[in-house]
Amino acid sequence: MTKCHECEKEFDVEAARAEYTSEFSGELDYDEYGQGNCADCAISEAESNMNVGRAIDMMNGDEDYDDDFVQKHL
Ligand SMILES: [Zn+2]
User: What is the count of structural domains for the chain?
Assistant: First the structure.
């Protein structure tokens, strides 16, 4: 068992990796982005990073601009 860096919960790395991989259909690599965090923290961190990325794309005009979304995530 490993202790999560974020919430200090004990978790199983294998299980966290499996959950992370299935959540993102294998598009994100737990060992690259989520390591050290339990599945819940790793997934919520990845989602918030993706939302920030989308908000930046909206600011740059690469995606349809959604003011609520930008306000919420930037
Ligand atoms: Zn955690």
Answer: 1
pLDDT value at position 50? Answer: 94
CA of 33 to the centre of ligand 1 (A): 14
Token representation of residue 52: 């920030």
pTM: 0.84
Q: Which residue would you say has higher pLDDT here, 41 or 35?
A: 41
Nearest to 36 by CA among 8, 4, 11: 4
- % helix, strand, coil for the chain, step of 5: 60, 5, 35
Q: How many whole angstroms from 57 Cα to the centroid of ligand 1? A: 28
Domain with 63, as residue range(s), is 2-73
